[in-house]
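[step 3/7] fold_predict: job queued, chain A
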Amino acid sequence: MPKVILSVAQQLSKLSDLQKQAKAGLESSDVIRQLGGLTVYACLTDFYTIQAARLIEQILLKNQVRNGAAPTFEPHEDSYFYDNRIDTRKIVKGIEQLLPLSYPDKEADDDLEGINKVAREYMKRTKNFLNHRNEIVHRLCSPKTMPENIPELIRKTEQTFLDMMTSHAGFFKLAGPFRFGPKEMDSFYGTGKYSTDTKTAF
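[step 4/7] structure written:
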C-alpha cells in the first residue's frame, strides 16, 4: 500500500488547525485540555526543529556547491527524522555544532552574522521549552507538586513555547533567502539522486 504524504498546502493547513486547537485548549479551564495543548506544542516544536535542520543543511550544501566542491552529504527529507525517530534534542545539538554558518558570498556576511545570532537564540529557546515540557511530564504526578501549582507549570511551559516561536520566525525570516533555489531543489530532492557531478548543474 503506497504511503500518502500531504502536500505543502495540506500540511500547512493541518499545522495551522493544530496550533489553533492547542491555543483553545490552553485557554480553557480544563487542565486535561491544557495538557493536550502542550502536547500539540511539543509536536509542533519537533516539526519546526526538523525544518530548521533541513534549512541549515541546504545552506551548507549550497555553500559547498558554489565553492565548486562536491556535496559531502545528501539533504534529509522530513520522513528521515520521523521514520528514524530522531530525538529533538539531538537535532538541536547537531544544529548548534554546525554554527556559525558561512557562505561564499562576502556581501552576505552581515546577513549571516544576524542569522547565526538568531539561530543560537532559537536553539536556546527550543531547549528551554523542552526543559519545561519535561518538567510537566516528570513533576505533574509528583507528591511534591500541589494541585494549585499545576496551572503555573502549564503557563510557564506555554510561554516558553511562544518565546521559541518568536525566535523561530526571526530565524526563518533571515535564513529563508539562503535556502535552495529551484535548480538545487530539483537536483537534491528530485527523481534523480545526487551524484558527484551535481555541482555542474548550478
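[step 5/7] annotate
Confidence is low (pLDDT under 50) at residues 192-202.
The helical segments are 8-27, 31-66, 78-83, 88-98, 109-139, 150-175, 182-189.
exit 0
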